[in-house]
Design goal:
The chain contains six helices and three strands. By secondary structure, the chain is of the alpha/beta class.
Length: about 140
Protein backbone atom coordinates (compact mmCIF):
# COMPACT_ATOMS: atom_id res chain seq x y z
CA UNK A 1 0.00 0.00 0.00
CA UNK A 2 0.90 3.67 -0.05
CA UNK A 3 2.04 3.69 3.59
CA UNK A 4 4.55 0.90 2.95
CA UNK A 5 5.98 2.69 -0.09
CA UNK A 6 6.13 6.12 1.54
CA UNK A 7 9.70 5.80 2.83
CA UNK A 8 11.15 5.81 -0.71
CA UNK A 9 8.73 8.14 -2.44
CA UNK A 10 10.03 10.61 -4.97
CA UNK A 11 11.85 13.59 -3.52
CA UNK A 12 13.61 11.75 -0.70
CA UNK A 13 17.31 11.12 -0.85
CA UNK A 14 18.59 7.66 -0.08
CA UNK A 15 21.91 7.19 1.72
CA UNK A 16 23.53 3.85 2.53
CA UNK A 17 26.04 2.62 5.08
CA UNK A 18 27.21 -0.84 4.07
CA UNK A 19 29.09 -2.81 6.74
CA UNK A 20 30.82 -5.92 5.43
CA UNK A 21 33.00 -8.79 6.58
CA UNK A 22 36.35 -8.96 4.78
CA UNK A 23 35.34 -12.17 2.99
CA UNK A 24 32.18 -10.66 1.45
CA UNK A 25 32.15 -8.84 -1.89
CA UNK A 26 31.24 -5.16 -1.96
CA UNK A 27 27.60 -4.44 -2.71
CA UNK A 28 28.42 -1.00 -4.12
CA UNK A 29 31.40 -0.58 -6.45
CA UNK A 30 32.73 2.56 -4.77
CA UNK A 31 31.98 5.08 -2.06
CA UNK A 32 30.43 8.40 -2.97
CA UNK A 33 28.23 11.08 -1.39
CA UNK A 34 25.37 8.56 -1.11
CA UNK A 35 27.17 5.37 -0.06
CA UNK A 36 29.98 4.37 2.27
CA UNK A 37 31.27 0.84 2.70
CA UNK A 38 33.30 -0.22 5.71
CA UNK A 39 34.86 -3.61 6.30
CA UNK A 40 35.21 -4.97 9.83
CA UNK A 41 34.23 -8.10 11.74
CA UNK A 42 31.01 -8.28 13.70
CA UNK A 43 32.66 -9.04 17.01
CA UNK A 44 32.94 -7.28 20.33
CA UNK A 45 36.48 -7.23 21.75
CA UNK A 46 36.58 -8.21 25.40
CA UNK A 47 39.18 -5.59 26.27
CA UNK A 48 39.45 -1.96 25.16
CA UNK A 49 42.98 -2.52 23.79
CA UNK A 50 41.70 -5.14 21.33
CA UNK A 51 41.60 -2.58 18.53
CA UNK A 52 45.40 -2.67 18.57
CA UNK A 53 45.73 -6.44 18.62
CA UNK A 54 42.72 -7.33 16.46
CA UNK A 55 42.59 -5.10 13.38
CA UNK A 56 39.47 -6.87 12.11
CA UNK A 57 37.34 -4.97 14.64
CA UNK A 58 35.82 -1.57 13.95
CA UNK A 59 38.43 1.14 14.39
CA UNK A 60 38.06 4.70 15.67
CA UNK A 61 38.81 5.92 12.13
CA UNK A 62 35.91 3.86 10.75
CA UNK A 63 33.62 5.16 13.49
CA UNK A 64 34.64 8.68 12.51
CA UNK A 65 33.68 7.96 8.89
CA UNK A 66 30.25 6.76 9.99
CA UNK A 67 29.68 9.75 12.30
CA UNK A 68 30.74 12.23 9.61
CA UNK A 69 28.46 10.56 7.04
CA UNK A 70 25.51 10.68 9.45
CA UNK A 71 26.31 14.30 10.37
CA UNK A 72 26.08 15.24 6.69
CA UNK A 73 22.66 13.60 6.47
CA UNK A 74 21.49 15.16 9.74
CA UNK A 75 22.60 18.65 8.65
CA UNK A 76 20.98 18.41 5.20
CA UNK A 77 17.47 19.89 5.16
CA UNK A 78 16.36 17.41 2.49
CA UNK A 79 14.27 14.48 3.60
CA UNK A 80 16.59 11.48 3.58
CA UNK A 81 16.20 7.76 4.10
CA UNK A 82 19.23 6.06 5.66
CA UNK A 83 19.68 2.37 4.92
CA UNK A 84 22.23 0.43 6.95
CA UNK A 85 23.17 -3.10 6.00
CA UNK A 86 25.44 -5.76 7.39
CA UNK A 87 25.57 -9.52 6.98
CA UNK A 88 22.68 -10.33 9.31
CA UNK A 89 21.21 -6.90 10.03
CA UNK A 90 21.50 -7.36 13.78
CA UNK A 91 24.65 -6.13 15.47
CA UNK A 92 26.83 -3.78 13.42
CA UNK A 93 23.85 -2.20 11.71
CA UNK A 94 22.00 -2.31 15.04
CA UNK A 95 24.75 -0.20 16.62
CA UNK A 96 24.45 2.38 13.84
CA UNK A 97 20.64 2.41 14.11
CA UNK A 98 20.92 2.87 17.88
CA UNK A 99 23.39 5.73 17.42
CA UNK A 100 21.25 7.49 14.79
CA UNK A 101 18.12 7.00 16.87
CA UNK A 102 19.70 8.64 19.88
CA UNK A 103 21.39 11.60 18.20
CA UNK A 104 18.33 12.32 16.06
CA UNK A 105 15.94 11.82 18.99
CA UNK A 106 14.23 8.88 17.30
CA UNK A 107 14.79 6.46 20.14
CA UNK A 108 16.33 3.00 19.95
CA UNK A 109 13.33 1.25 21.45
CA UNK A 110 11.10 2.62 18.72
CA UNK A 111 13.49 1.07 16.19
CA UNK A 112 13.73 -2.10 18.28
CA UNK A 113 9.95 -2.47 18.07
CA UNK A 114 10.16 -2.33 14.27
CA UNK A 115 13.12 -4.71 14.14
CA UNK A 116 13.07 -6.77 17.38
CA UNK A 117 16.07 -8.94 16.55
CA UNK A 118 18.49 -5.97 16.74
CA UNK A 119 21.29 -6.47 19.28
CA UNK A 120 23.70 -3.53 18.88
CA UNK A 121 27.38 -4.40 18.73
CA UNK A 122 28.73 -2.86 21.94
CA UNK A 123 32.18 -2.00 20.53
CA UNK A 124 30.81 -0.28 17.41
CA UNK A 125 28.27 1.61 19.50
CA UNK A 126 30.98 2.64 21.97
CA UNK A 127 33.22 3.97 19.19
CA UNK A 128 30.37 5.89 17.52
CA UNK A 129 29.40 7.67 20.73
CA UNK A 130 33.03 8.25 21.66
CA UNK A 131 33.56 9.95 18.28
CA UNK A 132 30.32 11.92 18.64
CA UNK A 133 31.23 13.30 22.06
CA UNK A 134 34.83 14.11 21.15
CA UNK A 135 34.53 15.26 17.52
CA UNK A 136 34.62 18.96 18.42
CA UNK A 137 37.83 18.37 20.36
CA UNK A 138 39.77 17.16 17.28
Amino acid sequence: GQEEQGWWREGKKIKVISLLDKDLPRIFSKDNEHVITLVFADADPQRRDMEVTAPDYCTPAQAKQIVEFIDQIHNDPAETVLLVNCKYGLCRSGAVVDYVGQICCLGFWDQKGKNPQIVPNFWVRHLLFQEYYTKDLH
